[in-house]
UniProtKB/TrEMBL annotation:
One Pfam match: Trm112p
Species of the source: Falsiroseomonas stagni DSM 19981
Database matches in PANTHER family: PROTEIN PREY, MITOCHONDRIAL, ZGC:162634
Protein name (database record): UPF0434 protein SAMN02745775_108214
Superkingdom in the source lineage: Bacteria
GO cellular component terms, A-Z: cytosol
Matching HAMAP family: UPF0434
Length: 62
């Protein structure tokens, strides 16, 4: 997914967001358009620049 279709995430938002499951840090994967929680093993999608922080919407990491 390209950055234009995923939308850019505001860097200030990335500083304050945490994983809703673990309350741990997230890593922004710009190429995939996802916020990744290594600790939870989940990747949260970013749609139109808006992180979707719902565990039901997250992709499990393989």
């Amino acid at each position: 997914m390209s950055e234009t279709s995923a939308g850019a995430v505001d860097p200030r938002l990335l500083e304050i967001l945490v994983c809703p499951v673990t309350k741990g840090p997230l890593r922004y994967d710009r190429e995939a358009g996802e916020l990744v929680s290594e600790k939870a093993g989940l990747a949260y999608p970013v749609r139109d620049g808006i992180p979707i922080m719902l565990p039901d919407e997250a992709r499990k990491l393989g």
